[in-house]
Amino acid sequence: MKREEDVMNKKFMRIGEVAKFCGVLKSTIRHYTDIGILPFEGKTPSGQRLYDPRRTMIRVQLIKSTSRPRATLAQVKERMKSEEGRVNPLLISPLGRGRGEE
After folding, report:
1. For residues 73 and 37, is the Cβ–Cβ distance under 8 A?
2. Which positions ≥6 away from 49 have C-beta within 8 Å?
3. Phi, psi of 42, deg, nearest 5
4. What is the pLDDT of residue 68?
5. Are strands 49-51 and 13-14 parallel, antiparallel or unpaired?
6. Nearest to residue 16, comparing CAs of 5, 35, 44, 99?
7. Where would I find the beta strands (DSSP E) of the chain?
8. How far is CA 92 from CA 24, 64, 86, in A?
9. Using alpha carbons only, what angle is made at residue 88 by residues 26 and 72, rounded to the nearest 5 degrees?
10. Could you tell me what percentage of the chain is helix, strand and coil, using 3-state DSSP and rounding each to the nearest 5?
11. CA geometry: angle 76, 82, 85, nearest 5 deg
12. Res 64: pLDDT
């Protein structure tokens, strides 16, 4: 098993690595990206999304922490917008980035 330090020192991770590291499904990562609350850094030549390990881990934790039982992802997105100023901006990308931006 990879140590957390080894993963965090990696420049970019593919969606499967991100999902495993964050403890969620790949479909969850894809969905968060598609609705604009989890940005990715670019794509491989074959079109796979690449994620920054540190930013993504922090972002997924933020999404999970702002979620509450029966909250919709739209509500989570709104809550993240209101709390984004409280998080170190160097650690996260702006909301909405990720859908095809490279």
Report:
1. yes
2. 14, 15, 33, 40, 42, 43
3. 170, -165
4. 65
5. antiparallel
6. 44
7. 13-14, 42-43, 49-51
8. 19, 15, 11
9. 45
10. 50, 5, 45
11. 125
12. 81
Q: Does domain 4-86 have CATH number 1.10.1660.10?
A: yes
What's the number of CA atoms in the CB half-sphere (13 Å) around residue 34?
Answer: 7
Residues 6+ apart with CB under 8 A from 50: 12, 13, 14, 40, 41, 42, 43, 44
| Pair of tokens at residue 36 | 């604009």
**CA atoms of 68 and 77, how far apart (whole Å):** 12
Instruction: Give per-residue pLDDT as tens, 39-94.
Output: 999 898 899 999 998 889 888 988 887 766 677 777 777 777 766 655 544 444 44
